[in-house]
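Sharing a chain and its predicted structure for anyone who wants a worked example. Both blocks are below, sequence first, tokens second.
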Amino acid sequence: MGWFNYYGLAIMVVIMVPNIIYAVKCKDGFNNKEHNKALEIAEQVGRYACFVLMIFNIPYTYYGFWFNYAFTVYLAVDGAICLIYLIFWAVFRNGKSIVRALALSVTPSAIFLFSGVMILSIPLIAFAVLFAICHIRLSIKNAE
């Protein structure tokens, strides 16, 4: 895989489609009840950095797949997590609950973190951890 990750782009499209549909249908669905500006900014930095780093591999910051069949594992596991994410969106499309918040915040976090580990992308791993901590916390606070 070179500097452009077509598979990462496909993964991003798959996880963004339900979010875009939800944003169009529920204009106020993404309002934060937690008014911690630092946490919100950190989440957004982590989110957009993960988006970019899933698609673009920055030279000298990633090392590529590090074991035999890693590419196959990468596709299979990320594909399975994407499918789980889509199922969670279908199941939890209406209503708010802690379970919904956890399901829809842990799965994208897992995708970003797993992808970073599989291609040994140091920045993707770091931003995935930042995103996971902030996104899961904000999602739970918003569901309470």
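Comments welcome. The chain has one domain: 6-143.
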